[in-house]
Backbone:
């Protein structure tokens, strides 16, 4: 099969790889669409020791089941493979399963390929009314759906319901859409890049600013750099909540003194539960997350250039989808 392989820092190569052999509980899925995630970029730049070369990256995927009783079914892929037996899994917190695996990280190859092997329980049916290109957004949208759900649950009932989201990439935009779907009417998106901000202003109805003013009950850091954590620390209202999704760098930025004196809650959020993933797929199907038309589609063969363009800041759209077929 054809696959886009990460071969070393800043190097991607299209080549032939063996078709995966499904294990007893797995099926083959022919990939129709696979999104480029920020974590794929971290690996591409050589910044992720968990993804050593050579490796097929990509974990945001949708396609068609190739074998078994469900052959021919259109599905979106939950890439998080968990054990099902640990306390986290048994309490429906599969995202923090200590034995979790994810496609695009050894021992599992990723979705920038014509085929992937995945446990059948990880597949969610996609209605015929939803394009598979759109269904491939379920994974990044689920990350933000989970964060929004957790953040709103942590917010004191007396707090006003408004939010600031820092970062206009797919995760940040998805956080805006998830918060809106959950009833938060006033959501502001902060995006420092002119190209991305202009794109979002033209293609969405999201209030997008370069530098936010005032304070917000809920602040989502979808970037995860020291500078964005500093903004989150300064813009969260007393008694509010910071949701940290981004994994840009590991330290700096938080104003611990202010957070302590103002009783600001900090929550790190990672991926999603199986229920979050299913709920996100349902929200896509019934239109609660909007048209989701802010993607750019390229062929798998154009993948190396797509990675280079993202790194160079030449991509306005929050998400590039690669199409193996």
Residues:
């Amino acid at each position: 099969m054809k696959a886009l392989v990460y071969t070393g820092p800043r190097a991607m190569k299209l080549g032939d790889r063996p078709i995966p052999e499904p294990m007893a509980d797995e099926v083959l899925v022919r990939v129709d669409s696979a999104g480029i995630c920020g974590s794929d970029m971290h690996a591409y730049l050589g910044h992720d020791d968990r993804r050593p070369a050579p490796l097929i990256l990509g974990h945001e995927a949708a396609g068609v089941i190739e074998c078994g009783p469900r052959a021919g079914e259109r599905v979106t892929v939950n890439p998080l493979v968990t054990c099902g037996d640990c306390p986290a899994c048994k309490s429906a917190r599969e995202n923090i399963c200590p034995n979790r695996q994810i496609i695009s990280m050894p021992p599992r190859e990723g979705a920038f390929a014509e085929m992937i092997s995945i446990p059948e329980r990880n597949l969610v049916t996609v209605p015929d009314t939803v394009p598979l290109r759109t269904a491939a957004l379920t994974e990044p949208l689920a990350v933000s759906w989970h964060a929004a759900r957790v953040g709103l649950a942590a917010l004191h009932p007396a707090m006003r319901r408004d939010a600031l989201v820092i970062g206009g990439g797919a995760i940040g935009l998805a956080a805006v859409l998830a918060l809106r779907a959950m009833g938060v009417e006033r959501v502001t998106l902060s995006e420092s890049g002119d190209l991305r901000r202009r794109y979002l202003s033209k293609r969405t109805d999201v209030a997008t600013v370069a530098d936010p003013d005032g304070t917000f009950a809920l602040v989502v850091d979808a970037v995860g750099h020291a500078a964005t954590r500093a903004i989150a620390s300064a813009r969260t209202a007393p008694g509010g909540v910071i949701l940290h999704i981004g994994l840009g760098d590991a330290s700096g930025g938080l104003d611990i003194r202010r957070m302590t004196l103002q009783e600001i809650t900090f929550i790190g959020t990672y991926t999603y539960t199986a229920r979050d993933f299913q709920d996100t797929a349902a929200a896509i199907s019934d239109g609660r997350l909007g048209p989701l038309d802010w993607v750019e589609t390229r062929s798998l063969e154009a993948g190396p250039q797509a990675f280079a363009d993202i790194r160079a800041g030449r991509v306005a759209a929050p998400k590039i989808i690669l199409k193996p077929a």
